[in-house]
Amino acid sequence: MVEFTPIESLVVQAMKDIGATNEEKKKTADDIAKKCNRPKGIVTNTLISLVQKGAIKRVVREKASGYYVIG
């Protein structure tokens, strides 16, 4: 089990709350930041950390990347 920091836990929970649970339902960093009520820069850095830990997946798209929770 991967240990999350408090902000990582908040971001993962927010992603689950807005339904970012598979590739078809991926959400942007803006969507996630709004749900978390945290600055986009902090959320973006947290998303990068979560991708490195293997907790979420990043999908590169033409405009903004999308993110979703794995498992």
Short description:
This protein is mainly alpha-helical and 71 residues long.
Strand tally is: 2
User: What is the H-and-E element order?
Assistant: HHHEE
State the helicity in percent bands: 40-55%
Write down the overall geometry.
globular
Q: How is the largest sheet built, in terms of strand order? A: 1-2
CATH topology title: Arc Repressor Mutant, subunit A
Helix/strand-derived category reads: mainly alpha
State the domain count.
Answer: 1
State the CATH architecture: Orthogonal Bundle
Biggest pleated-sheet summary: 2 strands, antiparallel
CATH class annotation: Mainly Alpha
CATH superfamily: Winged helix-like DNA-binding domain superfamily/Winged helix DNA-binding domain
- Taken as a percent bin, the fraction of beta residues is 5-15%
